[in-house]
Amino acid sequence: MGKRGIEILDIDVKALIKMLNEALSEEWLAYYQYWVGSRVIEGPMRTEVEPELQVHADEELNHAVMVADRIIQLGGTPVLSPTQWMKLARCEYESPEDPYVEVILQQNLNGERCAIQRYKEICDFTLGKDPTTYQMALTILQDELEHEQDIEDWINDIELLKENIKKMRM
Fold first, then answer.
1. Considering the chain, what is the average pLDDT of its residues?
2. Tell me, what's the pLDDT at 114?
3. Separation between Cα atoms, residue 66 and residue 38, nearest integer Å
4. 38 SS3 class
5. Minimal CB count within 10 Å: which of 27, 60, 87, 121?
C-alpha cells in the first residue's frame, strides 16, 4: 500500500499492525495445533475428524498469509520469529498431550473461540476506517465461525455415539 493509501486510513496504523501481529502469531499457533493434532489423534470418528483437522490447518495457514500480507501493505513487519508467537498471542496453544479425539477437539474449539473474539475486535477497530483490513478480518472471522460450528458438531456426534453405545449395552 502506498503512502497515500495509508494516509487516507482513519485509523491508528501502528495499533492496527500490533493487533495484526498478535493475530498472525495466533494463526501460526492454530495452524500447528490443528496440524499436529491431526497427526496424533486417536479415538472414535478419528478417520472422519483427521482430514477435517488438516483442512482447518490449511485454512489457518491461509489466514496467516492474508494477515502477514496486510501487515506489509500497511508498512509494518510481520512477526519474524516463532519465539515471539507465544508472547504476542492471546489465544493459547494447547499441546495435544492427550491424543483422544474429544480432547483434541476441545483444544481446537478453545482456539477458535479466542480467534472469533480476536477478529471481531479487528472488525470493530477497522469498521468505517480501513475497508481493506475490515474485509480481510471479516472473511477470516467467517471461517473461524465455520470452524467453531464444525468442531461443535463433531463433539455432539461423539456424545451421541457414546449415548447410543450405552443404550445398546442396556
1. 94
2. 98
3. 23
4. helix
5. 87
Q: Which three cell numbers stand for residue 10?
A: 482513519
Query: Residue 100: beta bridge partners?
Result: 42
List, for residues 139-156, the tens digit of each pLDDT value. Answer: 999 999 999 999 999 999
Q: Using CA atoms, how far apart are residues 24 and 14, in angstroms rounded to an integer?
A: 15
CA quadruple 50, 53, 55, 56: dihedral, nearest 10: 170
Give the model's confidence band at 133: pLDDT under 50 very low, under 70 low, under 90 confident, else very high. Answer: very high
Cell of 136: 480481510
Distance, in Å, from the CA atom of 137 to the CA atom of 65, rounded to the nearest integer, reads 12
Which H/E stretch holds residue 156? Answer: helix 131-169
Which pLDDT does position 81 carry in this prediction? Answer: 96
74 residue type, one letter: L
Q: Which three cell numbers stand for residue 15?
A: 495499533
Query: What are the distances in angstroms from CA 12 to CA 121, 152, 161, 170?
Result: 14, 36, 50, 63
Residue keyed to cell 474485509: 135
Whether residue 94 contacts residue 110, with contact meaning beta carbons closer than 8 Å, is answered with yes
Tell me which DSSP letter residue 83 carries.
G
Contact yes or no for 74/13 (Cβ under 8 A): yes
Between 89 and 7, where is the model more confident? 89
Report how far Cα 14 is from the mean position of its chain's Cα atoms. 22
